[in-house]
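Standup, Tuesday
Yesterday: got the pipeline producing structure tokens again.
Today: sanity-check two examples.
Blockers: none.

Example 1:
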Amino acid sequence: MDAPDVILMDVHPPWREGEDVEEPAAEAAAPALAPDRQQLKLCGTTFEVPLHFEPIRALGKGTYGVVAAFRNKETEQNVAVKKIPNPFRNTVDGKRCLREIRLLRLLDHECIIKLLDLVAPSSPVFNEVHLVTELMDGDLHTVICSDETLTEDHVQFFIYNIFRALLYLHSANVVHRDLKPANVLVNKDCDTKLCDFGLARGRAGFSEEDDDFLRTEYVGTRWYRAPEVVLTSMEYTATVDMWSAGCILGELMGRAPMFRGKDFLDQIRSICAVLGSPKDSELSFIPPENEAARNFIRTRFPAMPREDWTAMFPNSTEDQRDLLDKLLQFDPNARMSAHDALRHSYLEDLHSPEDEPVASSHVDWSFDDVPHDPDRLQCLIYQETAFYHPEILERDREALAARGWPSETSR
């Protein structure tokens, strides 16, 4: 099936008015501007970009960065530039920045946003990072909240491409962990690409440092968290992304978020209010050391009835409801995988194995598995930039030697 008709959008995500945004911290003094760079102020923030970049418009700001659209006059291509100010102010922000850059450089799939360039810093001493990516027209949050008609063809096409991206990610040993409509970018021709990989981890990986963030971050993110993320500190698997995909499917069907908890505990109540109180067998995934989480559900939500999908989504099809049911399973072990979801009868007209590639190898997560001090993180992000601009290694050879940094890149 071909892509559905155009959906008009004019807002680039995932930064919008009304979210819990955080103004960028004050910028420290920076080295002298390189002769091939210019400084342009958009969205209240100064971007340092190549001279051949022409500003188009500010796109917004969020908890992690500021984004603007530019025209690359050399390639005649419109791009998005994401500025991350002061990424080394703490280890969590620095690792998140490094994680996003490394993954976007390594991942290669048409349903994942492409990192086109990293703006080279003027010297090895830098306090901001500029990522250059493809520019998309909007995101699924924009689409869902718009007045545009969403046909079943639209819903099928969007969810199919989300599953394509997740199949590839999970085969590469990557779990996105922050999948939500705002992180699913779309174009007017319904091209679909996942973005924002700062919280991603390996399928069997877990990071204590961002557990609180995953469970308690602002409301627009919490609504898409799987029950096991909210309830426990277990090692999350690829099934957390499948839960989030189910939330997105339901939101596309009903044009409203499915689970709107006021805090992370109320999030469990909102899930039980729709899916009903889980049976003991559905809580078997909770490890013994988290028995308090199991008891919390048993005592607080002992007998909540399950909502009827047909009543919730009166215009839905049987296949649509069946897929939704297989994704929104309280027990992560019972959820459908991306591989199986692509073969579900709901996507029969779109399913094509040649359009659903898996990764050729696993991502090596060793870069993320050890503590990094600010200097080490700065070095690693400088090395990432050198993949795009190897000439800076020769330019900075003496400064690199003085800091004890390598003067070559290693993959």
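Example 2:
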Amino acid sequence: MDIEQKEKKGWLSQVGENLVRRCIVAALAFIIMGLYAMMALNLKLFNPISKAFADYSITDFYYDVSGHNEADTSNIVTIVDMTELPNRAALAMVLDQIAECKPKAIGVDVVFEGLKEEFPEGDTLIFEVAHSQPKTVFSYKMIDDSWDGTTYHQTKRSFFADSLITQGFTNMPRNIYGGMKRQLSVGTRLNGKLVPSLIKAVADEYAGEETVPLEDRNVRINFKPRAYAVVPPDSVYEYRHLIEDRIVLYGAMTEEADMHYTPMGKIAGVKLLAYAIETLLKHNEIKEVPMWVTWLLNFLLMVMTILVFDYYDRWVAKRGPLAKVLWGSLIIKGFVRFFWMAVFMWLAFLLFSLFDISLNMAYGLAAVAFMVTANNLYSVLAKYFEDKKQRKNSAL
């Protein structure tokens, strides 16, 4: 083997060793991060922190950044606030006025709890309006009757027994670990049959066709900043231009019992429905990157970070004495690390902003914080195994 071939082989061997070292350091950084995370999430001392993180998503950060932009007012959905209406008769009369303004679809976010014997005329009016408005979707709830260990068995709680009246359920998806609403159901199974949610039924009515297939799944709501026109119930005719050819959601805007926490803050349930319906109509559901791809990209981010800082350390070593002290200081390195991480967060935000794709780079960015510790641990382990190898060779 000539000298040139030896040098080439030595160079390739060095590149391979450096790559292996960087991958091991990256893996150690993730392991250290995982140990700290396990400690923080499991120790009682950190219980409030663990609850906060359990209910946090990287998309919340993206929404917070985009929330500083001025929100456009929706030209698809208008909300009529019925919070202050005194009874069902008044509710029915306003609903009749809405229908006279010729909307494309109406969604009624009110679940009527049985008949009101003291005001039978209100029940009568509700039934009459429901039968005279084919474009109106009424809401109902499903209640859990029993749990067999694997499945909840549910019963439909509906004011209308007539199957000709279009209805959709408004149950929120179960969330054991937190109260943040980021998803709503498209459909679910009721006594073995697939039934649509209110948001799907209203979106389909507006579109005049099926917007998404009826499936037992949740839609990941796109909460990009959007304002909704809210019409008071005593001014429906005055705001005809905000109702005609639109979707009208009829619900309470200020009723505390129907307020929900979302990435956009605490909002009314009817506004949550509005966001979900527009997501279905615009087909801009937030798409989550598969977990294995997320971890792979985060690992590659960590390897690239180690590579960049190895190069940076070599660059600093070639500077003069004063420049070496300045550029090699912890403060300057901290700034460099911050801007390096900011670049990746910016790229992930662009992916979300332009293509509605949520890529969680938090794992890799958190691991970067433990890069120095991982490097030191690698040096200690490498020295230990090297000494062990030398002792073994000496014994032979």
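Quick observation on example 2: Residues 47 and 117 are 49 Å apart (CA to CA). The longest strand covers residues 136-147.
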